[in-house]
Each structure stands twice: as structure tokens, then as C-alpha cells.
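Input record (one chain):
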Amino acid sequence: MKAKRFLFISAVVLISAVCLAVMNINYDRLSRYPYEDKAARALIEEYFSNKDIEYIIEYSISPSEFIDFISYPEFSVYHAAEYNQIRNSIWYLDNEQVVKVVELAREKMTMEELIHFLIEYDGQTVMNYLSLEDTSDTILIKNPSSSSAYVDDINTVHTRILFDALPVVSLPSKDVQVTVASAVLEPVKNMCMAIETELDLHKTCGGLIADAGYVSYDEQALLFEEAKLVHGEDALLYADSAGHSEHQLGLALDFSVEGFKKEHFDDSIQYEWLKNNAHRFGFVQSYQKEKEEITGKAERSWHWRFVGYEIAAKMYFEHLSLKEAVYE
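The corresponding structure, as predicted from the sequence alone:
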């Protein structure tokens, strides 16, 4: 009798277990979800944990809010509003890039700041910057297209590419064609016309030669490696690391004059003219000996930067560096 009772209880337990298993197999985690999009439900079942599903049910979050992003590795349903904020503001990013850039940025800046940077820079540059393990000692500047944009060993444009680089046709160059930002072309042309007339040397642009204009991130990286070989630990005094050069802004030109070595450019009459007149055309000598403590750079008599007419005049008449004129 005991044996029959044991067999009966065992059978009941087994049947109950089977029934529970069947119930679990057939349990619809989305039974309380009010949206009937079958394709969306399938994706939700595939990618969402029970916690995720409880979240979208509790807050009645429509599949349209997140379904376009759901399959990407970094996706989090809890950040769907931010994905949509970026997608609605920045047209050129695809959905995968939206997810990636939001997840990279969330702990480092607000979405409003992120939108600003995605407008001022290309998406890849922003993601490259945000991918840095530590951004505490380097700051992505907010106005890379402005004539007053300021870069130094901390402030950077990172891997930004100058998309409006155009050849400088108003003065000769030694080797490759020198390019600058489009905003610089007219001021350079006007300055060349003035120096030709005022020095009366009967030479194109008064004898000035363009040695360098826009320099890309990768090119600057190579130049800085060369500077380290020459100057060692003092390389930053004489050169700029990639992403921190005024040349990458497309606003700077390095000049030379036939018959003068680079380090003796300041002995030329062309330099003397630039020192006294370049501000009339919006240009300044970025790195001067008396400003070395402020700029952190040794003097570069050959390096001239377009900052715009108003700022150039202020720097000239008040004997200021760009940092002092604009940011202090």
C-alpha cells in the first residue's frame, strides 16, 4: 500500500513538473505589453532581458523609440531618449554610430554639448576623441572653424580634417602646393598686394614664399616625431603634437625668403614688414620670444596666423598673445 502511494505521489510530482515546464515554455514575457508589432516583439524577445522588458512595460515605451537601435552591441534601452535626441539633431550619423557616440559621451558631456561637437566636427573625430581613455589633460575646443580658435598643448582639434582647404595662389611655394582654410585666401591675397607695393621689390608677394599651410593630423604626428629626435624632452617647445597645431586649423602659414635660412627669417626686410603691417590684414606672429612663458613655445618668426582683423589689431597694439587677447 505504501509502495502504491509512493508511486502515486511521484507521478503527481512528475506531471506537475511537466506542466510547469510546458507553462514556462509557453510563457509570454510580453503578455502585458500593449504593442502588437510582431517583428518588434521578436527582436525584443531576442535582445532584451526580463529586466529590460519590465522597464518598457512599466513605462509603456513604444518599439518605435528603440527598435532601430536594438541590435547594436552598445545599445541600452535606458538611453533610447538620448539616441533619438542625437538622431533628430544630426543627420549624417547612421543608427549604429548614434548608439556608439552616445555611449561614449554619456559620462563625459551632456547631449547638448555632444550635438554641438557633432556639428562643429565630423562624427569620427568626436568618437576618436571620446574613445581616449583619459580626456582630463586634453580639451576638444568648441570653435575649430573660428578665426580665433585657440590650440596649444592642452586644447586640441584632435583628428579633425579641414574640408575647405584650398590652394594659396597669391604667393609661391617651394615644393608641394600649400593650402589653407578658405577664409584665409582673401586676406593673404590682400597682404601680398600690399607688401609688393610697399617694399617695391618687384617680386610676387614681396619675395615671401609659403613653406607650409594646412597640415593634417597624421602629417603633424610625423613632424612631431622628427622634432623629438632633434630636441628630445624639449620637443614641445619647438614643435606641436598632432591635433594641437595651428596648421591643422588651416589658419597658419610658414614663410621663408630666398637667401635666408629658416632660423634667420627675422633678419629679412619681409619679416620687418610683417611685424609692422600683418595685423592690417588679420595676421599675427603666434609665437614671440617675449610671450614664451604664456604660449609654451619658442619664437617662430616664420609662423604667421590669421586671427581676423579685430583680434589682430588688439594683439598688435596691446602687445598680447592670442591666449591673452581672447581667453584671459
